[in-house]
Write a structure and sequence with these properties.
single chain; mainly alpha; two-stranded antiparallel sheet; 62% helix; transmembrane helix; Na/ntran_symport
């Protein structure tokens, strides 16, 4: 699942993990166990939405696409698509009291969508647990008198390694100690000729991965009883650490210049279609609609819970966290830019390179660098354990669109009646119009853009071979193909007409 510590939501809870509410039964008379405390649910949803992408993706996109001007398309897409879809999934799960697969009792022929979500979650988990293991490896390495990525005197360094300076940042033939530590000290890329030459597992990284899996297991093995406690740490710790890093960052020379560059407004960039595409993409990256986790979380809410208020609060906190993290990141990038007398765009980047190369470089120049490194990588661990990576544009967006399309077919008016039954009021005209017209069009746009702008993956100057790209496409198709396959299975196995396999199970 997208949220590593929320893996349990796709399987049944243990009886001891939840409490049975009084007077909170479904209209059908079915009793349903619920969250012990409302705050557990809110922190779980916030932790699910807030992840590494808030730290390593949004600030860079904002800087690259016109600074403050980028907030115009970002907030627009947030209002017309992000929040409505977020609200829709919370309400859908809360009313039907089912998880990612079970909720499709509303239209059994499309239950394959639920199975698709679960399979995508499995694939994402394979990748994201490795990212958490890297962060853990860096954390262990930070407990030293001198950080291992400070100089070029280590066994893994090459002849191209040179201490960080202005010349180095402009010389593509040189490498920083931090870059070589990540690529040669941690990943040992120098021992591999490519993806077809993986070599033996490194025991250090394998051990870190094993620790991550054990930690996740003991965080989840009793359902909400344990994960409800874990989320109080994993969902709140990033905010504490970000605040501490910001207080340190703004005191550094050049920090204000970095923040000004982050916030500088260039409205002419809004004439570039790519800016709008990246804003729309970030909304999909950010909120995680289409993964089924929101449905599963809300399915254990009390029936009369105000899911509308929850959707507004949690989606807003997610966006504010992205914006806040930009101040932290660019205060340190501004410091590096001034310290080494280079342009900011020479040190500004996104993705793993920001948190495993650029940021460690900045931390290494500070007094008491080991302490700051420990603080930073603890934040990465809590973000990682609490969430999963959001590189899902070619999978989650089509699934979210498919859900939205089916939702419109089944009837927005009927769904509005369900919401009124839960919280006492029907959704306003704005929400109904978004669900019926705006959000499906937005998601269809994202699906088309995702495939139209696809570029074969690469790492630096290394392009992955054709067979590796084909494996990637097969993995993507293997999940989405479950939707039509399950529909065909239903048609062939159940007697009756077309309507019989499309109507809700209890119709």
């Amino acid at each position: 699942v997208k949220k590593a510590s929320a893996a349990w939501v796709l399987s049944p809870f243990t009886a001891s993990a939840l409490v049975t509410p009084t007077g909170q039964t479904h209209p059908s008379g079915e009793q349903r166990e619920t969250w012990g405390k409302k705050i557990d649910f809110l922190l779980s949803v916030i932790g699910f939405a807030v992840d590494l992408a808030n730290v390593w993706r949004f600030p860079y996109l904002c800087y690259k696409n016109g600074g403050g001007a980028f907030l115009v398309p970002y907030l627009l897409f947030m209002i017309i698509a992000g929040m409505p879809l977020f609200y829709m999934e919370l309400a859908l799960g809360q009313y039907n009291r089912e998880g990612a697969a079970g909720v499709w009792k509303i239209c059994p022929i499309f239950k394959g969508v639920g199975f698709t979500v679960i399979l995508i979650s499995l694939y994402v988990g394979f990748y994201y647990n490795v990212i958490i293991a890297w962060a853990l490896f860096y954390l262990f390495s930070s407990f030293s008198g001198e950080l291992p990525w400070v100089n070029c005197n280590n066994t893994w360094n090459s002849a191209n390694c040179s201490d960080l300076n202005a010349t180095l940042l402009n010389d593509s033939h040189k490498a920083t100690p931090a870059l070589e530590y990540f690529e040669r000290g941690v990943l040992h890329l120098q021992d591999s000729g490519g993806i077809d030459d993986l070599g033996l597992p490194r025991w250090q990284l394998t051990s870190c991965l094993a620790v991550v899996i054990v930690v996740l297991y003991f965080s989840l093995w009793k359902g909400v009883k344990t994960s409800g406690k874990v989320v109080w740490i994993t969902a709140t710790m990033p905010y504490v650490v970000l605040t501490v890093l910001l207080l340190r960052g703004v005191t550094l020379p050049g920090a204000i210049d970095g923040i000004k560059a982050y916030l500088s407004v260039d409205f002419l960039r809004l004439c570039d279609a790519q800016v709008w595409i990246e804003a729309a993409t970030q909304i999909c990256f950010s909120l995680g609609v289409g993964f089924g986790v929101l449905i599963a979380f809300s399915s254990y809410n009390k029936f009369s819970n105000n899911c509308y208020r929850d959707a507004i609060i949690t989606s807003s906190i997610n966006s504010l966290t992205s914006f806040f993290s930009g101040f932290v990141i660019f205060s340190f990038l501004g410091y590096m830019s001034q310290k080494h007398n280079v342009a900011l765009d020479k040190v500004a980047t996104d993705g793993p390179g920001l948190v495993f190369i650029i940021y460690p470089e900045a931390i290494a120049t500070l007094p008491g660098s080991s302490v700051w490194a420990v603080i930073f990588f603890i934040m990465l661990l809590t973000l990682g354990i609490d969430s999963a990576v959001k590189h899902r544009r070619t999978q989650a967006c089509p699934i979210a669109y498919f859900k939205s399309y089916i939702f419109v077919v089944l009837g927005v008016d009927r769904f509005s009646d369900d919401i009124q039954e839960m919280i006492g009021q029907r959704p306003g005209l704005y929400w109904r119009l978004c669900w019926k017209f705006v959000s499906p069009c937005f998601l269809l746009f994202m699906v088309v853009v995702s495939f139209a702008t696809f570029n074969p993956p690469k790492y630096g100057s290394y392009y992955f071979p054709m067979w590796a790209n084909m494996v990637g496409w097969c993995l993507s198709i293997s999940s989405m193909i479950m939707v039509p396959l399950y529909a065909i299975y239903k048609f062939c196995s159940l007697p009756g007409s077309f309507c019989a396999v499309c109507l809700p199970e209890n119709f």
